[in-house]
Amino acid sequence: MVSPPTLDEIATSDLTPLERELALASFGSNPPHAQTGVAADNPHLEAWRARLDGLRTRNAIAKPLRACGRLTRAAGLVLEAVGLRLSVGSEVMIELPPGSTLAMAEAEVVGFAGDRLFLMPTTEVHGLLPGARVFALESAPVEDPMTGAKRLPVGWGLLGRVLDASGKPLDDLGPLAAVDDAPLTAPTINPLHREPIHKVLDVGVRAINALLTVGRGQRMGLFAGSGVGKSVLLGTMARYTSAEVIVIGLIGERGREVKEFIEQILGKEGLARSVVVAAPADVSPLLRMQAAAYATSLAEYFRDQGKHVLMLMDSLTRYAMAQREIALAVGEPPATKGYPPSVFAKLPALVERTGNGPAGGGSITAFYTVLTEGDDQQDPIADSARAILDGHIVLSRVLAEAGHYPAIDIEASISRAMNALIDDKHLEKTRMLKQMLSRYQRNRDLINVGAYTSGRDALLDRAIALYPRIEAFLQQGYRECAPYDASLKALGSLFTEGG
Ligand SMILES: Nc1ncnc2c1ncn2[C@@H]1O[C@H](COP(=O)(O)OP(=O)(O)OP(=O)(O)O)[C@@H](O)[C@H]1O
Ligand SMILES: [Mg+2]
C-alpha cells in the first residue's frame, strides 16, 4: 500500500486547493505532528482518494458551464445586463423569444457601471424581452494575444467582392472563396520598426503626383464639404494608383451612393483588384465602426503578405460620428462640438494601424475623406485628423462650382512626406508654381476689374501669362489617367515653354 503523505508533503506538493483540503481533512480533527508522518493504515485517506477519482471522472465528461446574465434595461441604443463579468469589447448573445426572425441577438459590451454591463446590439433586437438571458461568447485559447478579439474573413478570394461590416457578401456572387480569418484589432507596430516613407506612389492624378507627391505608406486626408468631389477623386485614384491591392471602406454614406460608387466611379477594372466594405448610414453605429476596423484589418492582411496596399476610407468623419453616437448613448459627456473625448482617442487608434510595416514588408497607403461641415476647416474632427495624418488635400467648393475638377486647393493642401521623396529640381518647380498661384489668387479681383497694369510685379505678370496653362495642368477628367512621369513632364513644360 502507498504510504499516505505527511503534512509537509501536502503543503509542498502541487495539489489543487480542493485536493489539499481533502487530504488535510483525512487527518481528522487531530492531525499527527509533521515529522512523525501519517499512520499507514488511515482508512479515511483511501476513501477520499476514491471519491476524488470519481469526481475527476465526472468532471472530465461534464459540459462547460454556460455563464449567463439577465437583461435588465433597454433604452435607446443601449441595453443593460447584470450577472456577467465581461471585458469591454466582448461579444454576447441575447436570447430572443421563439418565433423571432433570429434565434439570438448579438451585442457588444461597450461599457459598464458597477455590476451592470452596457451592451450595444449589432443585429436586429426586435422582440427582446425583459429578463432575457445574456450569454458570453465562448472564448478562444489563451495563448493567442488577440484572444477574444472578433475575427472576420480575409483572404485573396475577397478581391472583387463587396462585403458588409461583418464580412458577409453584399453582392450576389455567392459565398466567399479562399477565406482565412483575422482579428478586427491588431497589436500596434513599434514606430521604430516601421519602414520610413521613401518611395513615391503614382496615384494617377496630375495635381497630386506633381504638387502633392504621395509616398508609399503615407496617410493622407481628403478634406471637403459635401458634394465637392471626394468620392470621384477616390474613384480615380482607385482605378489608376499603382497598388497591388485596394481596400475601400464606405462608412456611413448614403446607401444609394454605395452602388453608384462601385458601378460608376470605381468601375469593373477598379473593382477587380479591390475589396469593398460598405456600412451605409442606416446600419448601427457599432457596425459602421466595425466596417472601418474591418477594412483596416483587410489592408493589414495584404500588407503582412508583403503587398503594397491602397486603402480608401470614405469617410473618417462618419466613423467619428458613429463613435460619438455610441459614447453619448453610454453617458460619456460631450466635449468639443458634441464629440466626447473617446472620439479623439479612437481616430489615431484607427489611423495608426495603416502606413508602412516593418522594413522589407508591404505597405498601406491610406486616403481618408474628412467632411468639413459648411467648409469649416476648424471642425474638431478635421483638426484632429489634420494632426494625425501625414498630409491633407483640401477640395475647394469655389473651384468645384467653377467646374474645376479635381477641385484641389493647392495652396491649402500639403503632403508632409513630399520633401523627402522628390529631388531639388522638382521641389523648386513646385515652389514656383505655388508662388505664382498664390500671387494670382491674391490679385485676382484687381486683375479681373482691370485695375492691375502689367510691369509692376514681375512674378504676377508671369503668373497672369501662365495662368490658363496652370489651370489646364491642374484639371483632369475623372476617366483620365496621369502617370507620375507624365505629370512631372507636364509640370516641367509649364516653365520651359513660354514660362
Ligand atoms: N473630376 C470630376 N469631373 C467632373 N465632375 C466631377 C468630378 N468630380 C466631381 N464631379 C461632380 O461633383 C459631384 C459630386 O461629387 P462626389 O460625389 O465625389 O462628391 P462628394 O464630396 O463625395 O460628396 P458627398 O459629400 O455627398 O459624398 C459629382 O456627381 C460630379 O457631378
Ligand atoms: Mg462622397
Can you tell me about this structure?
The longest helix is centred in the middle third of the chain and has 20 residues, at 285-304. α7 crosses α8 (316-329), α8 (316-329) crosses α9 and α13 (424-442) crosses α15. It is built from 16 helices and 19 strands. By secondary structure, it is α/β, with parallel strands linked by helices. The strands form four sheets. Strands 8, 12, 13, 14, 15, 16, 17, 18 and 19 form a nine-stranded mixed β-sheet that branches. Strands 1-2-5-4-3-6 form a six-stranded antiparallel barrel. It has three domains: 68-136, Beta Barrel (Thrombin, subunit H); 151-421, 3-Layer(aba) Sandwich (Rossmann fold), CATH 3.40.50.12240; 427-494, Up-down Bundle (Substrate Binding Domain Of Dnak, Chain:A, Domain 2). It has helices at 7-12, 17-25, 43-61, 206-211, 230-240, 255-272, 285-304, 316-329, 341-351, 380-388, 397-401, 418-421, 424-442, 444-448, 458-474, 484-496, and strands spanning 68-75, 78-82, 91-95, 104-113, 116-121, 133-136, 151-154, 162-163, 180-183, 200-201, 214-215, 219-224, 245-251, 274-279, 308-314, 355-356, 363-371, 391-394, 414-415. Bound molecules: adenosine-5'-triphosphate and magnesium ion. Magnesium ion (MG) binds at residues 230-231, 253, 314.
